[in-house]
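Intended use. Records like the one below are meant for learning the mapping from a protein sequence to its folded structure. Do not use them to infer anything beyond what is encoded.
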Amino acid sequence: MTTKQRVIVVGNGMVGHHFVDQLVAQSNQQFEITVLAEEPRLAYDRVHLSEYFSGKSAEDLSLTSETYYQSLGIDHFVNQRVSEIDRSRKTVLTNQGKTLEYDKLVLATGSFPFVPPIPGKERENCFVYRTIEDLDLIKAAAEKCKVGLVVGGGLLGLEAANALKQLGLKTHVVEFAPQLMPTQIDVGGGRQLKAKIEALGVSVHTEKATKIITDGESCVHKLEFADGSEIETDLVLFSAGIRPQDALARQCALEIGERGGIVINDNCQTSDKDIYAIGECALWQNRIFGLVSPGYTMARAAVSHLTQGEVIFSGADMSTKLKLMGVAVGSIGDAHARTPDALTFCYENPEEGVYKKVVTDTQQKHLIGAVLIGDTSEYDHLLQLHLQKDELSDTPESLIVPTLQGEPVNPADTMADSSFVCLCNLVTKGTIVDAISAGCDTVDAIKAKTKASSSCGTCVGMVQNVIDSEMAKLAVEVS
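Structure written out for the chain above:
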């Protein structure tokens, strides 16, 4: 009788849960799996965390349950923070005094919010935006506040600002960089995004370095900035970026990157071959990947290595499409045109609040990046051109300038069945086509059947494109 290998997963996030799902699906019960969750609940959907403020409950956001884990024979513990790893004995010790042995250890510890070292950051009504418990604290405090302020104008910062606005607070966003979302979009896109968000009633302040937080006169706090200006607010929410949660790896002397992060190879192994790291805590080729899709890819690579498969992690596409306070934003590939000799082509319509840019190679043959603000209708088509490395059949500007575009193109029409529609769950167009043939003719039905669009949600539009394309072939009118 073969002895089962003991696998301990440290972390209750989406990536850790995906690893467990994949290992269960592919291991044929050859592992004993234990999940250790630091939070008081098992994995939940952090991508859609803001929906907690618009009516969704913790149960609605949940990705699993104790019943589900029990049915699979998975041991699981909540409120169990791992405080120590003993690599020589191959044990972990939790803050509750529990010692567990492992054969393989998976660190899916994610990241923690970066709070700038600003004097006064520990004052009352100063929060971070990361967990359901954080949101409960923010919601309770907001009931006694009139003004809220977010330090950080990146993706998470704007999500947080939207949450404060939904709670009925007059909302400010303060960003150190000259523009909003500096990681994902360029200066032109940042300018248009700022205009659209301010039109929704949120005050945006860029190029602001917070010097100190002190007592306010009309509000609880006053933020003083390096340029001499100041803003008063009742509530401060820090969303100034993330840092890899690598404290455990440091404690047990695993290799750490110069600026943090647990160093991994293509199999997601750390400097200890029996310890893996996946998700935002992991550093691959000196890069941290802050989206859920790359974390899922890492999880699959680690599972593959554990089960003698051939899947490796070789990087990930960081393109994203989302809506921030109702403003459509899309970023694809090299959005900042950092590739040597890259060419950029821009279209801007201030009256309609639209900004679009495509980036090509020097021969104008291949799309290597794009930015879309206010209108992301071309996103799916541009993403496929980028991912498939298709040669452009027309001029680059024809991709974004309305008067040059001609008839709308459904990108699914020319997409190969083997192409991935959902990168999070590796769902191909062919799989979706098969589901449509089996009677699934809505995005929700496809999601339930294939898991496509069930994670980050970026591919919802592309799933609909495939449905429309297949229905058109069947001469069915789609509402």
